[in-house]
Amino acid sequence: MGASVLPACTPPLRPLPPPSGLPEVSIDIHAHIFNATDIPIPGFLDQVFLRSPESPVGDNYAPRALIRLVTEILLLTVSTAAEERSRLPQPAKDAAALIAQDKDKVAQGIRNYAAGGQATLRASGVRAANEVSEDAQLLGELNKLANRGVFLQRSRADLGLAVADAVFDEPAMPVAALRSAGGGGDPNLAQTLRWAALLTRDRRDILDTLIEFYGLNAEEQEDEVRGISAFSPSLVDFEYWFTERAQSRLSSQQDQLEVMSRLALLERRTVLLNFAPFCPLRAAVDGDSVHRRIRNAILRQGFVGVKIYPPMGFKPIGNSSNPGLMGGVRKASGTAIDRELRKMYRWCNDNGVPIKSHGNNSLAAGECTGQNAAPDLWAKVLQDYSDLRINIAHFGGFEEVTAPDECSDPPPYERRAAQLIDRYPNAYVDLGYWNEVAGTNRPGTEILSRVRALVAQSPALADRIMYGSDYTMIGRERQHNAYLRDVATAIDGIKGLSREAVFALNAQHYLGLNDPNNPTRQRLDAFFPADHPYHSLF
After folding, report:
1. Using an 8 Å Cβ cutoff, are 450 and 415 in contact?
2. Cβ of 41: how many Cβ atoms within 10 Å?
3. What is the model's pTM?
4. What is the Cβ-side half-sphere exposure of residue 159, based on CA atoms within 13 angstroms?
5. What are the residues whose beta carbons fall under 8 Å from the beta carbon of 439, sequence distance 6 or more?
6. What are the two backbone dihedrals, phi and then psi, of residue 152, each rounded to the nearest 5 degrees?
7. Order of strands across the sheet with 390-392?
8. Under a CB-based contact definition with an 8 Å cutoff, are residues 509 and 538 in contact?
9. Contact status, residue 298 vs residue 304, Cβ threshold 8 Å
10. Which helix (H) or strand (E) holds 418?
C-alpha cells in the first residue's frame, strides 16, 4: 500500500458557467440544504453507501470502513439549526474560510478514525489486501491519497493533515500530467471526503455553495447567461425510523423550519421554495402538533409544499393491512400511519399544497422498504384527492432494470410513473440525481434511449418532467459541477422535451406559481417583502 510521491490528482471542483439558453425563470425543484445535525448519521450513511445505486465506493476498501470514517467527520462539532438561527443575518463565510474549516474537519476526523486502526495496520504488516482489516485497507487508501510516503512512518496527525491538504488544495502539477504519471489515490474517496465536509457546514454556507455551482451571479447576468434562478430545498425527517443514533446533537424539526424560513427571506440572489418534511410515524407518535407545525410553516413561514419519504418504511397509503407495529426507534400501527397520511393529504388537497415524494428504491430504513417508493403506489392517493399535486422524485435512472438486487422491484419505476401520469393530470416527476447522463457517464446513451422511447410512448411526460439536482447529495459525484450543463444537453437530445418546459414551465404548474389565484402563489406573495427577487421572477 505504498504511495506515489506525486501530489493528489483530485483537485477540488470549481463552478462552471451555466449553459446558455436556459429559461429566465429556471427552477431546481429538488435540492437539500441540511447538515449533519439534521439527520441520524449512522442509519443515514448506511443507506447512502450500502443501498444507494449511486454509491461512489471504491474497490480497494469496504463500504462499512468508509461509513466509520465519514461518521467520525460528521460527529465533530456542527452547528444545530437553533445555533445557526441565533447568528443570522450573519453572512456566509468566504471561500478561504470554508476551505480552512473543511480541511480541519477532515483532518480531525481522520485522526479520530486512525486512532482505532493504526494498531491493526502495524500488526498486519500490510502484505496484501485480504490479510488486513477493513479499517487497515482504508487507512492504506488514505495514505495513497495523501501521497506522503508509507503510512507506518507517519503519525496519525500527519496523515489527517496530509489527506486534507491533498483533498482540498490544488495540485502542484497539472492534472493531466499527474494522471499520466499514475499518482494521486482514489478520486471517489477524495470526493466523498469533500462531501462529508460539506455536511459539516452551516446551512447558509451550503446554500452559498449551491448558488455558486448552479445559480446566478452578477457577471453571468451581465453576459445574459442564466443559471438556476429558484431552488426548492426539502427538509428531511428520518429520526424515528433509524434504529441507531450515535450523535447527541440533533436539530429539532421546528428549528430546521425556522432557520430555512429565515434564509428564504435573507437570500436575495435566488428564491428559496422550501418543502417541509412530514413523517407519518412522528405524527402517529407525537400527535397533532406535527400537523400544526407543518401547516404553520406553509401558511406563515414561506414553505411551498410537503416532502415525504415512503422508503423509510411506509406506503403512501394502504398501511392498515400491516397487522404489526411499524417503525424504528419509535413505533405505531399501520392504521395510525394511514390516519396521519390521510389527514395530511386532505389538508394539502384543500389548500393547494403540493407533495414531493422520494421515488427511487433507495434510502430505505428497513429490509426492502425502498419498494415503498414505487410510483404506482400513489394511484389510490391521486384517486381519492383529485386536486392534490404529487412529484415523484428521481426519474430517469432505470435502476430496477440496470441494477437489480434482492430488494429490486421491476418493472422500472420510470414506466410506472409514465402510466401514472397518463391517468392523473396532477402527477409529476423530477430528474434529481440524474447522474446517468452526467459527468463520466455522459452521454448515457442507453438511459437516453430508454427515456426517448418512454416520452414517445407517453407524450404527457413532456409536461410533467422537472429539472432537479438533488444537491447536496449530488455532491458525492466527482463531476457534479457539470451536472446542470450535462442535464441540459441530455434534454436537448430527447424529442418531445424542451428546456422551457423541463426547467421552468412544468415546475411552475406543479407549484401553482403560474396562477395568481393559486393559494401557494398568494401565500408567497404575502410572505416575501416587496423588494425580494421573488416578485420580479414570478
Report:
1. no
2. 23
3. 0.91
4. 24
5. 477, 478, 479, 480, 482, 483, 486
6. -60, -20
7. 275-277, 305-308, 355-357, 390-392, 427-430, 465-466
8. no
9. yes
10. helix 413-423
Region of residue 31 (left: phi > 0; alpha: psi -120 to 50; beta: else): beta
Cell 422550501 belongs to residue: 274
Cα–Cα distance between 492 and 500 in angstroms, integer? 11
Find the DSSP H helices in 37-185: 41-46, 63-74, 81-87, 95-124, 134-146, 156-168, 175-181
Tens of each residue's pLDDT in the chain, 538 residues: 233 333 334 567 788 888 888 999 999 999 999 999 999 998 888 887 776 655 555 566 788 899 999 999 999 999 999 999 999 999 889 988 999 999 999 999 999 998 875 544 444 444 334 445 888 889 888 888 886 433 344 444 578 988 998 888 754 433 333 333 345 578 889 899 999 999 999 999 999 999 999 997 534 444 556 799 999 999 999 999 986 665 778 999 999 999 999 999 999 999 999 999 999 999 999 999 999 999 999 999 999 999 999 999 999 999 999 888 999 889 999 999 999 999 999 999 999 999 999 999 888 888 888 899 999 999 999 999 999 999 999 999 887 765 566 777 788 999 999 999 999 999 999 999 998 888 766 666 788 999 999 999 999 999 999 999 999 999 988 889 999 999 999 999 999 999 999 999 999 999 999 999 999 999 999 999 999 999 999 9
Q: CA dihedral defined by 186, 446, 392, 485, rounded to 10 degrees? A: 60
**Hey, what amino acid is at 159?**
L
Phi-psi category of 224—alpha, beta or left, where left has phi over 0 and alpha has psi -120 to 50?
A: left
